[in-house]
Amino acid sequence: MIEFNEEQLQRYSRHILLADVGVEGQEKLCRAKVLIVGAGGLGAPVALYLAAAGVGTIGIADADSVEISNLQRQISHFHHNIGDAKVDSAREKILAINPEIKVNTYYEYLRADNIREIIRDYDFVVEGTDNFPTKFLVNDACIMEGIPFSHGGILRFDGQAMTVVPGKSACYRCVFREPPPPDAVPSCSQAGVLGAIAGMLGTIQAAEALKFITGAGELLTDTLLSFDARNMDFRKTRLHCQENCPICGKNPGIHELIDYEHGGCGIKSSKSVAA
Amino acid sequence: MHITVNGESKEFNQAEFSIADLLEEAEVDSPEMVSVQVNGSVIDRSHYADTTLKDDDEVDFLYFMGGGRR
């Protein structure tokens, strides 16, 4: 049991007051290890909220440096961080909020040959990358290692999230079998995104991580939550484990992790049917 | 024929209607960026043309969405 000191009791008092969290839940948070894959639009708010919540160990994996075009939405990176590694910029803000957090940084691309070893140390993974090869890699690695994760995607005014608990709920591949052809995928710089959408989706993912750790509420398992911020339409689509899923189905065809060819991100058009 | 598409009730005149037809009817520009679920089963992309829909089917278009890091 963790003996909280006076400062910690004050810092986490609003959690401790919550019946579904309490001292016990806060202890779980302080002992928890969460890995954030991608320190961009989604990973930035996730990092800040997990730090504020007192998640004991936060890992951040990202191979990019901060550019001025990131600052419109990637709120853990400030003007003075331009040119810094995103993982270092995010660590600086995490520790500025909460110096008690242990931060592990992975300034590298996650690939088939390094991801399992990295994620193995964590209780939960938040996937907020901009590309499908990494989304599928994170899904497959988490299924193989039995580590729950949150998927998040944003584009233009749209966002989507689902939580996967391996062996219990539908996985990303149950729904999206394999990456779309790279030539069908516009780059993020072409498609654009409303900055605050990253915060909306990132905080949903952070909430899922906190709920998983504390056991509070119901996760977005077997559920795809999607929203269109133009009219603030939120929709939950019920998902099901697919027997023919190539990674978590009855006769999975995937036994090794795959490094897919990298394309861009997102959808070309959702026109008359909202995503 | 009555089909629920992404939670919205829709009526179609056609008697025979495939997933490929529905994608066209709904003006989905990039079908390769959509995963289609019919009554809870995700349909293999190669079967969009030969999977016919029935009255009262529930269809969900689930869009690939990247975003975040860059």
Could you give the topology of this structure?
The complex is a heterodimer of chains A (275) and B (70).
Chain A: H1 6-11, H2 13-16, H3 22-31, E1 33-37, H4 43-53, E2 57-61, H5 86-97, E3 102-106, H6 115-119, E4 124-127, H7 132-145, E5 149-155, E6 158-164, H8 172-175, H9 188-191, H10 195-214, E7 223-228, E8 233-238
Parallel strand pairs in A: 1-2, 1-4, 2-3, 4-5
Antiparallel strand pairs in A: 5-6, 6-7, 7-8
Chain B: E1 2-5, E2 8-11, H1 19-25, E3 34-38, E4 41-42, E5 57-63
Parallel strand pairs in B: 1-5
Antiparallel strand pairs in B: 1-2, 3-4, 3-5
Written overview of the protein:
The complex is a heterodimer of chains A (275) and B (70). By secondary structure, chain A is an alpha/beta fold. Helices cover 33% and strands 16% of the residues of chain A. Chain A has an eight-stranded mixed β-sheet with strand order 3-2-1-4-5-6-7-8, with helices on both faces. In chain A, helix 4 (43-53) crosses helix 10 (195-214). By secondary structure, chain B is mostly beta strands. In chain B, strand 3 and strand 4 form a beta hairpin. Chain A binds chain B through residues 38-43, 62, 64, 70, 128-132, 135, 152-155, 158-160, 174-177, 180-181, 184-185, 188-189, 193, 198, 201, 224, 226, 235, 237-240, 242, 244, 264-275, and chain B through 5-7, 26-30, 32-35, 37, 40-42, 44-45, 60-70.
